[in-house]
């Protein structure tokens, strides 16, 4: 098996013909890249750009606000993945701005690690309405679908904020200012949905693409692949995580997603509406839709596309336009202990990953 040192040597031996911008979409990939210091050892002509790979970061502000209001005003037990509890919304500081603050104010807010935990809580509290705030990409939505197919209790409803990854990438590639040269295909998503879902990168845009796993050697293999493809002028969709990713993914998980969810246009925080990028519950599973069960807590007026707190550059970080340290709030007003924007909250957020890996604000920011 070729190790990281050998792949790095092969990358360095490739002839260089100017800068190459490679986007890595997956938050897990960004974490490996940052914590292993890959950017510091690659040739300076190779730029690795973090893309919209954090579901917590792109979860719409109006959905977080609705979850907070449900927790505070409806008397439900509100459960969510741990990262979602700290995501702030745009409200004055004197008001409750996160689910964590709602819990401190007396609301019944609980963190769960899986959809199964949400089901178990509903079964243990049959006299309570339990709302599961489910944000995530395809890998998270598959177990949500499985839980509903297994027969969720009637007192459980889902506030769904699920997103498909590929439409956001396609939108970026279609944008007039796109200057990306290649794509590292997300590993977890491809495990579920299949490598073939990313064929459009090559077929429609003529860009090199490669799927990678979550170790430095797998990522370096994918980087080498796309650099060599570009050098040879022969782009294709390579699989550098073949022991896990299949062309058609996980057929059982894909079937569960198809049976439980339809696809609709959806809002992405910091990005705006993207067609055919959101999951919605199909009948008969829509009887578990929290938006239908608690319609009074939705506020359409909060749907402000691209809305981030004042001075926060999370939108441009999500879109790969800037690195986290280029945001003037990074590490000064915005830290993991006191996040201003969502990218500093999640373990898959580029700002949080940058901070954890030791990136600190430039002196010019002070």
Structure description:
With 366 residues, the chain is an alpha/beta fold. The protein has a domain at 56-164 and 251-263 and 276-295: Rossmann fold (3-Layer(aba) Sandwich), CATH 3.40.50.11740. The protein is 36% helix and 17% strand. Strands 2-1-7-8-9 form a five-stranded parallel β-sheet. It has a four-stranded parallel β-sheet with strand order 4-3-5-6, with helices on both faces. Strands 10-11 form a two-stranded antiparallel sheet. Helix 1 (4-13) packs parallel to helix 12 (216-232) and helix 8 packs across helix 13.
List keywords for this structure.
Rossmann fold, about 375 residues, about 35% helix, 11 strands, 5-stranded parallel sheet, globular
